[in-house]
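Section 5: illustrative case.
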């Protein structure tokens, strides 16, 4: 068995040896064998496998070493001081070493930096030489879109390090999707990347690893190119071109390797042109231009060298067909032609047939944005004519309209009479239904006395909204007998109103009846049926029946997509509900894609905005929270709240939801005063709109307030609040509802914190049992319930039962939220407490 330290040494030796020729490699292996024959034998085996696979560094040694040594190697650096900077936490790990977040601590000013440290103090000459090349590379690059070198040196124990500009941001492809950028905006970001790469080329540097994770976009929209760790300084060779290197291929991921690197040919600036083509394809389509049949490196090499890349427009058209996504179909039409040819020219297998430089590639992109002919396409008469039309749309369109109107007028006149008759029939039907509903609703809302609608049971003005709805539901079948269209409409209205009030059983009953009526009237493929089904699914989801709700929503979304643009608002609402279902089941990535689609739909089809777009922004905050990004979550929550307040039709409940989300995130960050102010503001809005006994929003708000008061030590308030919430939840929601699980967990923690752990244990066990039943395995909410029960058992000194809950829960929280999320740190703290108490107990029993 090889340990973590040996894996670290083996990985570094492998990186060095992979770039050596045969004689140098033999000399290295002999030297290692004299010191450690086992490592030498393992190294020789890995090098043989590396050569057979085509020369990539995506192999077993990288994967195994990464998993084994990352935490052990990085933890030793935390807190160390390098020059004026202290190491705060690990940001990432690469082939040459580790990258940490550093903070200036010499008192001059506050500044965060990225500190890159080579992997070992006694590194191979090749590794040190590569590190020196990177330092020289960065030192000569001064460009606003390239992360700057700030400092460098070596530690007293021989670790070389670089201090670089710290770039907070997100990978460029993720930025484009998350913010719903259109094609032109993506192209402008791409041009910024080209400018940075062209600057490097002018300084005789080839990056050789241009992939989305090495290109970040900061919160203010600035592109920053990172990681010149495998870049090469170009050397002018006697009798050769100035853009060739004498080295072999760099260690790169197969998906972003060039044909030259696969074939072990000299590396030139054309390599960066090729990888920019890969990047542009991904930015425009969200996909890679190649499909790799399996994970073997040999298969990847065959694809890269031999197969033609997929046209960007074809990739989007394929997605449009498979997913029924109209936005993909529109973007496919936008890419067809110029952009297809620009990408495919950059991706040609032969370097001589690609763009001659990055600047030439960028120039073609600019010409496309300006509506001018591009060099990636032949100058045919038809092509230039098409470009002329695009540049002079107004006069050409005016001429076309005159001609077209003559043709259309002849056809339209023949059809006008029939259309008018058809529309008149529809108008009469809609008018009759609207009049019937109006009469019914007037009677329903007037049920403040012993009228026909209250059937002698009214109590004057004391008649509640719920009672009015109940009377109306009883009368609906009688009043609309023989008029199924009107009955379906009124039952849908009743179901939606019941749901808003949190009366979910009645909502489900009314909506199921409405769905059945719509099925008989129009069939299961009609938008009316889909619309009503989506409302039913939303109620089922609110009741915790995600398994039943999801397929209904999927079918409804597919039908409503086909009815664009008429039902864009309802489609957006259905997609948003589907996203919430996916999020509730632990699929944060799938939910995020759906929320982004909601925003895209409303931007395209709903002028003036729509509340569901603001809801989707807030839901993206939930996704950010699920990924451990509290700052990003709060940013989205605040954007959602601002968007809602800007819309005159926004409802108090919608504003209360966004406000409550901000309060929860601030609570996790420890900002208790502001969190409580916003939590009470949202609670007041919910109560005023829905009543004090609402289970869907009001009771969970009391639970959240109880958790805040628990953290503040206000236990009497917290216990009273959570007990009231649980009473409402148990009375009005199914026992397996997620809100009930959360409230049981809060109650159990209050009892544990106040010295009543034995009384709190049953609540915490119920919370964990419910979470395991409701959520996906290893979901963050299940993990939180596990560590809470583990902490309670620790307090009860049941160490054997507590340890697996805490350890497994901490692992799942870190996987879901990251190592620095407050809940992950809390889990580690509780593990430490467990160990301390266990050791103390062991000490007393041993030395008594």
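Designed sequence:
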């Amino acid at each position: 068995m090889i340990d973590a330290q040996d894996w670290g040494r083996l990985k570094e030796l492998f990186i060095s040896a992979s770039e050596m020729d045969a004689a140098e490699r033999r000399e290295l292996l002999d030297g290692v064998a004299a010191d450690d024959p086992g490592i030498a034998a393992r190294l020789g085996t890995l090098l043989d496998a590396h050569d057979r696979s085509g020369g990539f560094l995506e192999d077993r040694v990288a994967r195994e070493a990464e998993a084994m040594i990352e935490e052990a190697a990085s933890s030793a650096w935390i807190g160390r001081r390098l020059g004026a900077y202290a190491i705060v936490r690990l940001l990432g790990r690469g082939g040459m070493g580790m990258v940490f977040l550093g903070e200036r601590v010499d008192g001059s000013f506050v500044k965060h930096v990225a500190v890159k440290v080579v992997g070992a103090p006694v590194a191979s000459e090749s590794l040190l030489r590569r590190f020196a090349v990177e330092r020289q590379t960065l030192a000569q690059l001064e460009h606003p879109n390239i992360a700057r070198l700030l400092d460098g040196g070596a530690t007293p124990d021989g670790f070389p390090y670089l201090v670089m500009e710290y770039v907070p941001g997100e990978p460029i492809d993720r930025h484009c999707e998350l913010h719903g950028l259109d094609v032109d905006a993506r192209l402008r970001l791409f041009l910024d990347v080209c400018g940075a790469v062209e600057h490097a080329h002018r300084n005789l540097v080839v990056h050789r690893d241009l992939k989305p994770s090495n290109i970040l976009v900061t919160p203010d929209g600035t592109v920053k190119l990172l990681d010149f760790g495998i870049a090469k300084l170009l050397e002018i060779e006697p009798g050769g071109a100035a853009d060739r290197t004498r080295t072999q291929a760099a260690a790169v991921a197969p998906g972003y390797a060039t044909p030259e690197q696969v074939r072990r040919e000299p590396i030139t600036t054309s390599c960066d042109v090729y990888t920019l083509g890969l990047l542009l394809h991904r930015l425009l389509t969200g996909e890679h231009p190649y499909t790799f049949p399996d994970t073997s490196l040999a298969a990847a090499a065959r694809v890269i060298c031999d197969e033609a890349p997929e046209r960007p427009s074809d990739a989007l058209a394929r997605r449009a067909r498979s997913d029924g996504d109209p936005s993909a179909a529109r973007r496919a039409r936008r890419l067809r032609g110029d952009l297809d040819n620009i990408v495919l020219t950059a991706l040609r297998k032969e370097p001589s047939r690609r763009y001659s430089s990055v600047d030439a590639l960028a120039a073609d992109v600019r010409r496309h944005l300006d509506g001018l002919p591009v060099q990636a396409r032949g100058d045919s008469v038809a092509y230039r004519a098409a470009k002329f039309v695009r540049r002079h749309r107004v006069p050409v369109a005016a001429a076309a309209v005159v001609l077209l109107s003559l043709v259309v007028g002849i056809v339209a006149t023949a059809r006008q009479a029939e259309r008018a008759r058809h529309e008149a029939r529809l108008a009469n039907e809609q008018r009759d239904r609207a009049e019937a509903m109006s009469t019914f609703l007037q009677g329903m809302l007037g049920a403040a006395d012993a009228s026909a609608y209250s059937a002698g049971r009214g109590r004057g003005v004391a008649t509640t909204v719920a009672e009015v709805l109940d009377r109306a539901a009883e009368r609906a079948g009688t009043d609309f007998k023989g008029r199924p269209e009107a009955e379906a409409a009124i039952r849908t209205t009743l179901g939606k109103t019941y749901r808003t009030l949190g009366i979910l059983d009645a909502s489900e009953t009314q909506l199921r009846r409405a769905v059945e009526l719509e099925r008989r009237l129009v069939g299961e493929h009609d938008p009316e049926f889909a619309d009503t089904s989506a409302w039913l699914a939303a109620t089922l989801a609110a009741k915790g029946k995600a398994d039943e709700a999801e397929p209904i929503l999927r079918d409804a979304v597919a039908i409503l997509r086909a009815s664009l643009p008429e039902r864009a608002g309802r489609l957006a609402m259905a997609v948003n509900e589907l996203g919430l279902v996916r999020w509730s089941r632990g699929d944060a990535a799938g939910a995020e894609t759906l929320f982004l689609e909601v925003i895209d739909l409303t931007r395209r089809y709903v002028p003036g905005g729509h509340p569901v777009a603001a809801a989707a922004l807030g839901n993206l905050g939930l996704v950010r929270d699920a990924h451990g990004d509290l700052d990003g979550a709060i940013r989205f929550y605040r954007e959602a709240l601002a968007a809602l307040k800007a819309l005159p039709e926004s409802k108090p409940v919608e504003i209360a939801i966004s406000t409550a989300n901000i309060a929860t995130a601030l609570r996790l960050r420890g900002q208790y005063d502001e969190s409580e102010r916003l939590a009470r503001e949202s609670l007041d809005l919910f109560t005023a709109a829905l009543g004090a006994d609402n289970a869907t929003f009001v009771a969970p708000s009391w639970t959240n307030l109880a958790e805040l008061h628990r953290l503040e030590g206000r236990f009497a308030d917290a216990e009273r609040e959570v007990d009231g919430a649980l009473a409402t939840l148990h009375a009005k929601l199914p026992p397996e509802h997620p809100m009930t699980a959360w409230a049981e967990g809060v109650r159990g923690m209050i009892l544990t914190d106040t010295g009543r752990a034995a009384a709190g244990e049953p609540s915490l066990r119920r919370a964990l049992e419910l979470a395991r039943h409701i959520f996906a395995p290893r979901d963050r909410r299940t993990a939180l319930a596990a560590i809470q029960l583990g902490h309670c058992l620790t307090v009860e000194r049941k160490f054997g039962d507590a340890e697996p809950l805490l350890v497994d829960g901490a692992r799942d929280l870190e996987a879901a939220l990251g190592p620095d999320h407050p809940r992950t740190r809390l889990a580690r703290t509780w593990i430490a407490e467990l160990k301390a108490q266990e050791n103390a107990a062991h000490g007393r029993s041993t030395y008594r």
